[in-house]
Amino acid sequence: MGLGLVTLPLLLAVANAVLELGQLTTESGAVVSESATATQENQRISGLLAAMERNARQYLVLQDQELLDIYGEDQLALEGSVALLADLPQDKGTLSELQSLRATSRAVHEILKDAPGENAVDEVVRGFQVMAAAARAVSGGMRVVLNNRFISLQASTRAAQETLAWQAGLLVPGALVLIIFFALMVGRPMRQIDRAIRELGEGNFEHAITVSGPRDIETLGRQLEWLRNRLMESTEEKNKFLRHMSHELKTPLANIREGTDLLMDGAVGELDNQQQEVTGILRDNGVKLQKLIENLLTFSAWQTKTAALELAEFELKPLVFAVLSQHRLAISQKKIKLQLEVAPIHIYADEGKLRLVLENLISNAIKFTPEDGIMLVGATLADGALTIDVADNGPGIAEEDRDRIFEAFYQGRRLQGGPVGGTGIGLSVVNECVQAHGGSVKLVDDEWSGAHFRVHLPLQRSEHEPLVAHG
């Protein structure tokens, strides 16, 4: 109802304006077309008269029938142009001159077709003088008529502008009053709907949606509440599925890894080089699958709010070396040069969660670092916070992916190498683990051509130490 009350007068004004503009457009198009036709045909008549006079003079001298035929063709073309001009808006004087031009051209043609006598030359010359004068009069008359049409069109345009200005002056203030009234009436419930939709978009399904206001808006609020419940159920089912599948995969994967380790250790006999290579591939991909499953379990735990930090004091440098040792084969195969800048830091944090952070960042860096590339792993303690840097000189992250790289299950447009693809939750798990410690992770733009991730963790107090210590 409010939309109708506001828009109906404006729609009527717009419809009236469209009609006015349509009429003006049609009239102006007609004037422009007539002007172009008049100019073109007047120029054509001038050219035809010049050619006809030249052919007539030559015919009087040479008596060549071909010249007379050419004159006849030009005379027919002249009559066609005269007919086109006669169809345009004209005054009586211009129409009379057009008729004179047509009649004179025919008379001259008849003189030429008859056996020309001694006076034929004078009659032909006088005829062309009459036709030239008539052509000039037609051209001048057409200019006057078209100029009057343009003046009339300008007057109509000014009148339409004034009418539209009066309509706008009356309708716009009234529409603004109605808009303010309905905005005040529906502003509060619309803000409630906006807040509810924003929470749904951010994945926050905890707060029930209640909207008070006009009946149709309350109906929309109830539909959003129904949608919230469905999304919450869907999220719970998804997390339940992830937990069950991850747990189901862990047992057979553990058996596969145990069997692979037995093969590598020679429990069933010595392996030749090719067998060792295949077994090594199985072991490496088993480790990758285990990391993916651990990411899924961690992500599911954060989503269901069942994950909790298990804080303890430990040394960071051995943890970094332990994670790097898991990837030593991949680093060696790609001949990656490691740039380690890890200070001997003792930190109070969740060691398992921090290991996940390092594993995901380092494995991503290895995946995208080119052959003979360089990779940075650094850790420093300054200004009351721990900073961890992982960077590579690979292709980097596309500009259109930067705002979404920490979203769960989002995979960028860069092609991912390796026999085992990612799930798209590695960086999401990193973000969750870092935020649980009260820190942040971001993408840094600096001299590294590839991706440079920087983790910022504030200092935590342990039960035994007043502050984090480093040596």
Per-chain topology:
Blueprint lengths: L1 H61 L2 H23 L4 H22 L6 H82 L13 H50 L8 H31 L7 E5 H11 L1 H6 L3 E6 L3 E5 H18 L5 E9 L2 E8 L33 H11 L3 E4 L8 E7 L13
Parallel strand pairs: 2-4
Antiparallel strand pairs: 1-3, 4-5, 5-7, 6-7
Find the count of extended strands (DSSP E, 2+ residues).
7
Q: What structural class is derived from the secondary structure elements?
A: alpha+beta
CATH class of the domain at 2-174: Mainly Alpha
What Rg do the Cα atoms give? 45 Å
Strand content: 5-15%
Sheet with most strands: 5 strands, mixed
Distance between the termini: 73 Å
Low-confidence sequence ranges: 417-421, 466-471
Helicity, in percent? Answer: 55-70%
Q: Do you know the CATH architecture of the domain at 2-174? A: Up-down Bundle
What is the CATH topology of the domain at 2-174?
Answer: Four Helix Bundle (Hemerythrin (Met), subunit A)
